[in-house]
Amino acid sequence: MSNAWKVTVFGAGGTGGAIADLLTQKQYGEVVLIDVQKDMAEGKAMDIEQSGALMGSDTKVVGGIDPILSKDSNVVIITAGIGRKPGLRREDLIATNARVMKEISQSIRMLSPDAFVIVLTNPADILTRVVRHATGFPSERVMGQGGILDSARLAHWLAKLANVSQQHVRAMVLGGHGDHMVPVRRFASIYGIPATDVLTENAWQTAVEHTRFGGGEILAKFKTHGAAITPAHAVLAMVEALRSQVAHVLPVSVQSHGVYGLPKDVYIGLPAKVSELGVEQILEAPLSADEFDRLHASADSMEKTYQEWKSSQSA
C-alpha cells in the first residue's frame, strides 16, 4: 500500500484544514487545498507543510484557488459551501450548496476522472447524490460522510455514561446524517457486551439524544461554524479504507440500490464494505421493526427534499 496518493480537499475552512493536517501526519504523497479564499488556502497549506519537519513527514501540501491544482487526484474530498448557522437546518443549505457541488463536480470529472469522491458538505446525503449525477461516476466511487461521525458521537456518549474507555465501545448509526439518524441498538457494544446490558434505558436514550443533536450542540457553542476535528477524523477513516486491499466496514452514505427496500437512487447512511475498490458491498443486517421504519422515514425525507430541489431547477 503506497502513501504516494494525491488527495485534494475543496474547502480550506476548519474541517478542510484539519483533514489536510491529518493526511500530512499520515504521510500521503500530496495534499491540495482549494478554496475561493486563495490566501487562506495557501496560508494553511504552508503552515501544514512546515509541520512535517517536526512530524517526519515529507508530504507536499499545496493551496490555491485554481481547480487545476487537483489534477490526477486519487481522492477528492468536498467540504466547500456555506455552513450551518444556529437555527438553520441542513436541508436549508441545499439550493446554494448544490450549485457549488455541480461546479466542483465538473472539475473533478475533467481533471481526476478516476478519483474517489467523498462529500461532507451539508446536507451531505442529498449533496452526495447531486455529485454522483454531476460527475457521472459509478456509485461505488462516490460516497458521503455522516454515519462514521454520528457513530463516533454515540460511542463517545456510551463510554461516558458507562464510565469506560472509548476504545472498548463500538456503535453504528445509520440513516441520514443529522436529525434523521437511526442509532442501531443491537450494534452497540462495550468490549463485545451489548451496551444496553450495561446501561439503563434512560442512559441509552440520553446517549442517543446527545448524538442526534451533537452537531447542533457544538454549533451553538461556536456560533459561526460547526464541528471540524471529529468530522476530519471520520474522513481520514474513509480515505484509509479506500487505500486498503482489505475491506473496512464503515457506516457511510451510499446509493442504496434498493437494499432494505429503500428507493434505489437515494443516498443514505448504511453499513458498507469499503476498500481500494470503493464501496464493495452494502451489508443488509437485520433491524428491529422500529429501526426499519425510521430508516425508511429518513430515506423518504431525503427523497422528498431532493425531488423538491430537482423540481426547482426545471421551474
TrEMBL record:
Gene3D superfamilies, per the entry: Lactate dehydrogenase/glycoside hydrolase, family 4, C-terminal (3.90.110.10), NAD(P)-binding Rossmann-like Domain (3.40.50.720)
Transmembrane segments: none
Domain Lactate/malate dehydrogenase C-terminal: 149-308
Keywords tagged on the record: NAD, Oxidoreductase, Tricarboxylic acid cycle
Location of the Lactate/malate dehydrogenase N-terminal domain: 6-144
Keyword Nucleus applies: no
NCBIfam families named in the record: PRK06223.1
Family statement drawn from the similarity comment of this UniProt entry: Belongs to the LDH/MDH superfamily. LDH family.
Protein's recorded name: Malate dehydrogenase
